[in-house]
Amino acid sequence: MRYAARVPWPILLNLRLRCHHTSCAGIHTPTAPGSKKFMNLGIETWLPRIWLTRGWHSTALLPLSWVYEGLVMCRQMLYRTGIFKSETVNATVIVVGNIVAGGGGKTPLTMAIVAHLKQSGYRVGIVSRGYGRSHQEVREVEPQSLAQEVGDEPLMMKRRCQVPVFVARRRAEAAKALLAAYPATQIVVCDDGLQHYALAREIEICAMDARGVGNGRLLPAGPLREPWPRAVDLLIHTSQRSMAMGYGSSRELASEAVDASGAVKPLQDLQSHAVNAVAAIAQPHLFFDMLQAQGLRLGQTFALPDHANFEDWTPPDGNTPLLCTEKDAVKLWPRHPHVWAVPLEFTPEAAFWTALEALIQGRHKL
Questions:
Q1: How many domains, in total, are found in the chain?
Q2: What CA–CA distances, in Å, run from 4 to 7, 157, 229?
Q3: Which domain holds residue 303?
Q4: What's the whole-model pTM score?
């Protein structure tokens, strides 16, 4: 485990709050062009707002941040000194994560890395905690699995990547189970495990979105899960850059949507009339903005909390097409197969792949 800082303190650029298309207390709030936008006054919106600045709200939470930092540093020391053990597995482990709370584009990056490694001829598997699932035991994710049993993101990755995917509360246990079932696996990619030190790793990749490190403070006064800067092998920006260092990428929605039956509909065919959209991701407005960038005119938009299970949500009546993300589709399709999912196409710059391949060649377990 490496902890020495190798990335300088970032220069924050163009950080701004995006509050539209939100929901209150997890209940969908319809919006339409020109209508009043409702601000979510719950903690899920309030905290990210104060994390952008060092105002008095953030400063008032600093004592709690100092306690949190002490716990984080103590835990890191226990792993560095060997009191807590990091488990190694017989494969090259690549950990994809971030250092801020909330989504940062980790899962799209994980899927892009797995696709690239498969194309390069490696035998790859994925491990994940499976956030939000009802069971905590080690479990293999199958295409027909239920999202509530394995997690929405692992199920999405299984269907998209077509590689072994295992989930467990401790990712080290998931990795061992994966390799026991698929011993020929050469590389294990861990989705969202940068702070899961119990799993030893050869390569660490940090995903960072346009928020950067916010106000630079630790939870709860800021968004940081651990002090920054910290050592990582690769830093990649999954949207607008917040600092000069690191690799860039592009992200846009696919030109086609798909429903539960596998039917495909070009987004161009939906440009002649309004469509509705729903998203239960960390930053729903990004999905809505990308739909508009594809030339679609949005009617009602529904922003739910990240990983929402949609059990208490009902689509609007009428014949207006309803669009969602791939992640949400795995939960919506069992009850609403007519919903159209629009995949996200995430593409790191070529230099990122060159750097990753060099790291793999240097650290790959033969």
A1: 2
A2: 9, 32, 9
A3: 255-342
A4: 0.86
